[in-house]
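Can you give me the bound-state structure? Components:
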Amino acid sequence: MIALSNVTKRYPGGHEALRNATLTVERGEMVFLMGHSGAGKSTLLKLMAAIERPTSGKVVVNGENVGSLRARAIPYLRRNLGLVFQDHKLLFDRSAFDNVMLPLNIQGYDRRDAARRARAALDKVGLLGHEKALPITLSGGEQQRLCIARAVVHRPAVLLADEPTGNLDTAYAAEIGELFRSFNQVGATVVIATHDLQLAERLMPRLITIASGRVDTRTAEAA
Amino acid sequence: MKAWLLHHARAGSTTLRKLVRAPLSTLFNVVVVGIALALPAGLYVGLANVQKAVRTLSPEPQLTVFLTLDAGKADASLIDTRLKEHPLVSRMRYVPRERALEDMKRASGMAGIVEALDRNPLPDAFVVDASDPAPDVMERLRTEVATWPKVAHVQLDAEWAQRLDAVLKVGRIALLLLATVLAFSLVAITFNTIRLQMLTQREEIEVTTLIGATDGFIRRPFLYYGAVLGLLGGLAACGLVWSATTVVNAALIDLSYLYGARWEVAQLSWRDSASLLGFAAGLGWLGAWMSVARHLAHVRPR
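Here's the bound-state model for the whole set.
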């Protein structure tokens, strides 16, 4: 599903976030990218979602070489992905429901069909009672769950999450973990960048460890 | 196709909501665009009216046919007959050389000069009105008569009209320059307005891009906004020009009453108004397009 080979990412100014990274994620797998902050986990996710392009090497997602994708094709790649951000990136000028509607509006879903799917996604993350609430009135955990609802509402094949439990206490983190597990169980490929060891112990995913821009080769391939 | 229509309907309603939600800034933007457009539109109306007035006021152009100095009375009467029978000639007047000299003597300051001459240097002449004052008809008649025997020179007396025409041409060039400059300013106004909007909606643009919005999806509401801003500005400009001409007409009614005539300034025609609106909407669209393109170039993956 996702394959990186010899990927190096160097930022302007010379900082090398990744060096020669090679890893694969199989379809339907759940994988954690583990490492300290600054190890290059976020960069890996950004490369997979074509938010950044690799300096060298190849990033293949769903059979497409993401690194050399034309700008016009990138939106269609992203529609197969669900992105969960550490800072949620919710839109604070509209209700929870409208936030979840956004990906469906972008993809031109029929309004009634979209509303049904949005409610289903909100229900799934336990926020159906808050659909009219503005995100600012939600707690940190609720905001994160809203972000997840938005990421899965269009049923993407791949879910990419960057530190989804970063600012949450353990109880909230456990809830979020269960959500990811359930999406994985219905067939979604899930890649989570985190340094939350407790979460890893709970979900028992395959772990890929990264330290200062290098992927530990022993963990890079599925066993 | 259905999704496409849906996207456009949504962009349209988003635009209207944006305009209504900020009535004051909408109003100011519309006024600025309106004034920028009203200046060239007003000048255009003014020029069109002057041109029309000139056409009705200017005397019919005439041809003056000068005979050669050796032409006798017989030659003159022959030409007289030929002119009378010519289908393009409506009226003509014979000016014998003696009369021309008398006229010249009477002209102030010329008497001394004429006295000093030992013979009459002036030729016989005919002043001719053509049946149709159109320039090409006059010109045809002029070249034809010039080939007749004993005709030395045929002059078209339309200098006054020609000069005025030249002045109007300068006016038209000034209008064109003004319109160009203000078209640029309209593009600049929408460019900036859209840029500010995009800055305030930076997060929304970022998020929608991240979850798979195409450039077209992001661009559409801004393009609509630019076009609608141009359109409203165009309407404002039409309104301004219309009010101005109405005010001038009200003043002219009194004046023309005193002269026992009926003078009126023509309004901007429906066709011109429609092209003004189309032009304004197009420029607004262009400014928005440039602004969005510039912004989107900054959020591409690197």
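A couple of observations. The two ends of chain B are 33 Å apart (CA to CA). Chain B has a mean pLDDT of 84.
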